[in-house]
Amino acid sequence: MSNKPDKCPVCDMTVRGVEHTTQYHKMYFHFCSQQCLDNFNERPDLYLKTSIKVSGEISKHRLIRLSKPLNDEEADVVKSVLFTLMGVNNVEIGLTDIKVTYDLKQVREKQIEDALSGIELEIKNSWFEKMRRRMMQEHEENELDNLTASPGSYHNNNNNNNNNK
């Protein structure tokens, strides 16, 4: 047995302990956080395919609009909460918005929104904003599904519909 420390298959950080562990195809994988374990359980092939590992980070830039302005203390809390999420690379707080840059392979917009809801931050919830966020989340899920799909198959059926005309 090797004394080499385990690396988290999601974020490549060194894993300390076996608190976050799962078995997949009769192999045990250890993770640095519950967030990485959850992401792996959703799409294990995304993190095990060599071609995906080599491709590196999938950088996303999102704007989250707020219902009301943040004061300096609230802005500091938002930053500290978002930086606890694996994959969040940058956070810029405006008067009524938050710009977040993150690695899609490690964190999704939905997880970011959930973290903000956990501190009771009021995200703008107009019909348009809800639809915009939902479309971004669907796009992220499709992008991740396509990365794990077999070559030549995609999770967007528009090509199939055009061929049948």
Task: Describe the 3D structure.
It is a single chain. The protein is α+β, with helices and mostly antiparallel strands and 165 residues long. The chain starts with 19 loop residues before the first strand and ends with a helix. A 3-stranded antiparallel sheet has the order 3-5-4, with helices on one face. Strands 1-2 form a two-stranded antiparallel sheet. It has 2 domains: 1-56, Ribosomal Protein L24e, Chain: T (Roll), CATH 2.30.170; 57-148, Alpha-Beta Plaits. It contains 7 helices and 5 strands; from the N terminus they run E-E-H-H-H-E-H-E-E-H-H-H.
Task: Describe this structure in a few short sentences.
The protein is 42% helix and 18% strand.
Helix content: 40-55%
Tell me what portion of residues adopts beta-strand conformation. Answer: 15-25%
Task: Just name the CATH architecture of the largest domain.
Answer: 2-Layer Sandwich
In one word, what is the shape? globular
Query: Between the first and last Cα atoms, what is the distance in angstroms?
Result: 59 Å
Mean pLDDT: 84
Classification by helices and strands: alpha+beta
List the strand order in the largest sheet: 3-5-4
CATH class annotation of the largest domain: Alpha Beta
Rounded to an integer in angstroms, the radius of gyration calculated over CA atoms is 18 Å
User: Regions with pLDDT < 50 over 5+ consecutive residues?
Assistant: 157-165
For the sheet with most strands, the description reads: 3 strands, antiparallel
SSE pattern, N- to C-terminal: EEHHHEHEEHHH
Number of domains: 2
- Count every helix, treating DSSP H or I runs of 4 or more residues as helices: 7
